[in-house]
Amino acid sequence: MEEQEYSQDNQTSLLGYLKSMGETRDILRWCLCEFVNDTARTFIRRLLIWSVLSRAVSLAYPYLMGLGIDGLYQHNLTFAIFAVVGIALTYVLGSVFEWRAGHFIELTLGENLRTIDHAINKLFFAKNLGLHLQEGGKLTQENMEKGWNRFDMVQKAVLFSGIDSGVTLVLSLLMLSVLSPMCGLIIAATLVGNFVISLSLNRLVTVHMEPVESMFRALTRKRGERWQGVERVITSGRDLEEIEQMNREFTTALEADRKIWLSYIRGTMPRSLLAGFSVTITGLYAGSQVWYGHMDVVDIVPILTWAGMASQQMRFLARVEREVNWCTPSLKSLCHALSLPNQLAQTDQPIVLSDGPVEIAFEGLGHSYDHKRGAENGSAVSVLQELSFRVRPGEKVALIGPSGAGKSTITRLIQRYMDPEHGAIRVNGHDLREVDLRSWRRLVGYIPQTPRVFDGTLRDNLVYSLPPETRSTITESPGRPQWHEALRRRGSARYDRGGGPQASALHDHRRGDLQSGCRESDRRAGGDRSAPCRRGS
């Protein structure tokens, strides 16, 4: 909020423009560091080489054309033949170079898609579960998927258009400056003007798009919740009301979004006018030089061609810039979400727990939630205060209390979603903060009230919580419920066929069978080791 107020107060200052451009640069640099690996960087370097060769060959065409015209005008057979052979070579070499450039574009795209998929998964699952609960509005499926898609759009815009246009612009400007320094200076001045306009447009997006992006994220979350809870919406008679409400919210967000981008489009008009004006001035200057005999008439062809190409590439780069600016708010949200620091303290040499009986001791436990503030003074709500008790191996302990008493908080602290603000939890005498988290979770069997059923086969879901070494074969000791056999007998679905959340073949009672099997599987994964299990409430 402070950053937004600062931006609005300094809307017209050059420092504010540069600051907004710097924010965009930092977001893109973060994406480059996280989502572009060394292999992709190698592909990009090779792409640049082939792109430079391809554009250099194509830009030689106007010069050779002018040389051919001069040869015909002066009846110089050598110039004419050289021009014809050169033009033919530009087409042949240009085709080969473009093929190689396209080859590395495809390799770069594939490598970046693989990297971003891996990086988002790694950063997302690296966050502690308490952070997922606290920052549920940021660490969402919608936010991750939208950021993934926006990065893909940016890389395609850059690889398919940005690199080629940038290389063409630079080479056109260099060749133009060699042939006529004044013409090169005119186009360079136009480039500077385009940069100034870009500062203004980038600031417009940076300042105003973030709240609009937040509105769209909130609407996407709400829509997803209502779709998943379709039964409750319809049986409550709220379907028409929800449809109208979401339509109003979408219209509000869309109008705000449209207002910004219509302003952005209006801001691009000076850039187009500036480009056309620069080409006109370049043509007038070159014509005057020919008129007074300071330049050959054949030089008009490459000068006007290169000036026109430089102007055209500026417009192409403006489209790439618009695409990048359109994607930046979503990339910024993705960056902020995945850059959230973990709240768990890490030790250099964590204690690895071995299999066996477990004793848990709660010593002066205290915890509160900052995101649940009191209505009167706005202070954090305390849910646990000076809680101390001990659970010995083989003991069964039930936590009973009203909603908000701290039952779920204790369960989360045991699984180390977060660390307690006061006191400590000790496992076999070791502070849980000093214990290797994976070795601890291997000993814990957690049974939520409604287990999450993943897309996949029934077997995949039933063995999901089992250790890797026991997943290939499911063994059952005497007295254990034959839940997978029960599934077969009742015809819920084929044991090795899909049983995900969207499987239409599973009726409600059969879904209950599957969830019961998942609960039994979760219990067997950790219950035998005397670690506490809790059925969610």
From TrEMBL:
<dbReference type="GO" id="GO:0016887">
    <property type="term" value="F:ATP hydrolysis activity"/>
</dbReference>
<feature type="transmembrane region" description="Helical">
    <location>
        <begin position="185"/>
        <end position="205"/>
    </location>
</feature>
<dbReference type="InterPro" id="IPR003439">
    <property type="entry name" value="ABC_transporter-like_ATP-bd"/>
</dbReference>
<feature type="transmembrane region" description="Helical">
    <location>
        <begin position="157"/>
        <end position="179"/>
    </location>
</feature>
<dbReference type="InterPro" id="IPR036640">
    <property type="entry name" value="ABC1_TM_sf"/>
</dbReference>
<protein>
    <submittedName>
        <fullName>Xenobiotic-transporting ATPase</fullName>
    </submittedName>
</protein>
<feature type="compositionally biased region" description="Basic and acidic residues">
    <location>
        <begin position="506"/>
        <end position="527"/>
    </location>
</feature>
<feature type="region of interest" description="Disordered">
    <location>
        <begin position="490"/>
        <end position="537"/>
    </location>
</feature>
<keyword id="KW-1133">Transmembrane helix</keyword>
<dbReference type="GO" id="GO:0005886">
    <property type="term" value="C:plasma membrane"/>
</dbReference>
<feature type="transmembrane region" description="Helical">
    <location>
        <begin position="47"/>
        <end position="65"/>
    </location>
</feature>
<dbReference type="GO" id="GO:0005524">
    <property type="term" value="F:ATP binding"/>
</dbReference>
<feature type="transmembrane region" description="Helical">
    <location>
        <begin position="273"/>
        <end position="292"/>
    </location>
</feature>
<dbReference type="Pfam" id="PF00005">
    <property type="entry name" value="ABC_tran"/>
</dbReference>
<dbReference type="InterPro" id="IPR039421">
    <property type="entry name" value="Type_1_exporter"/>
</dbReference>
<keyword id="KW-0472">Membrane</keyword>
<feature type="transmembrane region" description="Helical">
    <location>
        <begin position="77"/>
        <end position="97"/>
    </location>
</feature>
<feature type="domain" description="ABC transporter">
    <location>
        <begin position="384"/>
        <end position="473"/>
    </location>
</feature>
<dbReference type="GO" id="GO:0034040">
    <property type="term" value="F:ATPase-coupled lipid transmembrane transporter activity"/>
</dbReference>
<keyword id="KW-0812">Transmembrane</keyword>
<dbReference type="InterPro" id="IPR027417">
    <property type="entry name" value="P-loop_NTPase"/>
</dbReference>
